[in-house]
Amino acid sequence: MGLDEIAAGVEVVAEQREGGVPTVDRTDDPLADRLEPFAGELPCSPAEAAALVDAYAAGKSVGAAARVAGVAPTDGAKALHLFGEHVSPVGPMGREIVADWLAGELPRTEAVELAGVSDQEFALAAFVETHDPIEGAMEAVEGALSVGDVDKRETLGDAMDGPGDVEF
Q1: CA distances (Å), origin 8, targets 14, 83, 98
Q2: Using CB atoms within 10 A of its CB, is residue 98 exposed (0-12), middle (13-18) or buried (19+)?
Q3: 29, 50, 127, 148: which is deepest, by most CB within 10 A?
C-alpha cells in the first residue's frame, strides 16, 4: 500500500468542524430536586439544604446561611460538611483530640478543654470526624458551590469561614 492509497479520500478544508464533547447536565433541575435522593442522610430537608447552599454560595457565613435556610447553624454546618465543604471548627491538633475522645482515651470535658472550643463546636467536630461527605450529594451541589471552573473558596477568599469561625 502506497501513500497515494493511504491518502485517498483525505481532503483539506478551510474550516474545522466542531466536534465537542456530549454531556448530560442536570443542573437545570432545581437543587432541592437533585438533593431529594439524599433526604434521609441530611440533617434538614432537601429544600432547606438547597436554600442553605444558595445562601452559602452567595457569600454568607455558615451561621448566616443556616438562618436564611431556617435551620440551626449546627445543622447547616453538618449539611455543608456532607456536601464536601470544610466546616470543622478545629484544626489538625483539635482533630487528634476529637479522635482520642472518640477512641475513649480522653473524657469529654478534658477533650473539649484541650481542643479550646465550646460544647457545640466540639459536637460539630465529632460529627465531621465520624461522617464522610456524601458522594452523590457532593456532585448534586457541585455547580452551586463553584463559580465556573473556579472553586468558590478561591473566589471568596477571606469572606469564608475558617476553622473556629462557624457562628452558633
Answers
A1: 19, 54, 70
A2: buried
A3: 50
The whole-angstrom separation of Cα 152 and Cα 13 is: 42
Domain ranges of the chain: 30-159
* Number of residues that this document lists for the chain: 168
Q: What is the C-alpha to C-alpha distance for residues 87 and 50, in angstroms, rounded to an integer?
A: 17
Query: Whose grid coordinates read 473539649?
Result: 112
Q: Pick the closest to residue 82 from 29, 40, 41 (CA basis).
A: 41
Q: Give yes or no for residue 21 having a pLDDT over 50.
A: no
Q: What is the pTM of this model?
A: 0.71
Contact criterion met (CB below 8 Å) for 67 and 166: no
Residue type, 73: P
For 44-54, what is each residue's pLDDT tens digit?
A: 999 999 999 99
